[in-house]
Amino acid sequence: MKSVVIAQDNDVELQLDSALLFYRSEGTQYVYATQHSARVVNGLPTLLPGVPITLDQLAEIAEIAARKTSYRGFVHERVVYFAPNMLAWWIPACTRRVWFKSTDKIGERAGDARHPPLVFIVNRDSWSIFALRDNERPGPTTKLYTAPYYNVWENGEICVGNVTTPDAVNTASIKPFEDAFFRSRFTHPNNERLIHRRGGAERLWLDLLDGAEFPLDRLIDTKRTLADVIDNITTLD
Questions:
Q1: 153 with 107, same domain?
Q2: What's the superkingdom here (predicted)?
Q3: CA-wise closest residue to 78 among 94, 64, 65, 63
Q4: Per-residue pLDDT reduced to its tens digit, 80-95
Q5: Residue 19 contacts residue 47 (beta carbons within 8 Å)
Q6: DSSP 76
Q7: Are residues 110 and 150 in the same domain?
Q8: What is the C-alpha separation between 141 and 188, in angstroms, rounded?
């Protein structure tokens, strides 16, 4: 459990004032909420009789919280999905430098290589990457393909290792997340099937480091769309 720190610019005495109680019916998503005045009685915190909270009052509470927690600013042009503590964006096909430190034939090597169009999806707990067949902005129904990179699991989640990633999840963290991925040392495949071709990912990256075009037609279909993956991550969050 994370600790909570309450900070003030000057000395302020905090007193118990009120509490919100939420009731949920087991096996459903229905929630009932009440607000209670609270007092310290004989040295013990005590809840007084409560009243039901209206939808308008809940909306007001949510708005106040959003002012402190939600991102405000211009939306990055490559963002395709944005929610509190979750962000998805795409990268057009590009040439970018990569580093390897593996025990296979690639060994310790760095160089510029061509990359397919990509989608990154990040939230507080995970960091995933997928490839695209078409070099255009993806939508909810766009098919996602396996990103053929070392250190990426079969479900698209990236093995963080000792890589430092941004603390915040917002549009200002797009470049730091990209840099953290591409500037990391790719050490080993976490997925047996990263690409449809003889020699697998090892041969693929040896060719790409030698200047080959990226073979988009060899990408492996994940059988999932962008909306499928985001819905799944949202459900698990």
A1: yes
A2: Bacteria
A3: 94
A4: 999 878 899 999 999 9
A5: yes
A6: P
A7: yes
A8: 31
Instruction: Give the Cβ contact number of residue 67 at 10 Å.
Output: 9
Same domain, 61 and 133: no
Contact assessment for residue 170 and residue 71, using Cβ atoms and an 8 Å cutoff: yes
What is the tens place of the pLDDT at every residue in 181-224? Answer: 999 999 999 998 999 999 999 999 999 999 999 999 999 999 99
Which single residue is written with the structure tokens 């025990």?
A: 103
Is position 8 within any domain?
no
Residue 4 belongs to some domain of the structure: no
> Is 6 inside a domain boundary?
no
For 138, the token pair is 């993806």
Question: How many domains does the chain divide into?
Answer: 2
Q: What are the distances in angstroms from CA 49 to CA 20, 65, 68, 203, 213?
A: 12, 25, 30, 70, 70
Beta bridge partners of residue 38, listed in sequence order: 47
Q: Which residue has the higher pLDDT, 76 or 64?
A: 76
pLDDT at 56 over 60: yes
For residue 18, give the H/E element and its range: strand 18-24
Lowest mean pLDDT segment, chosen from 11-25, 62-76, 94-108, 188-202:
62-76
185 within some domain? yes
Q: How far apart are CA 198 and CA 207, in angstroms?
A: 12
Length of the chain: 237
Residue 114's domain comprises 79-236
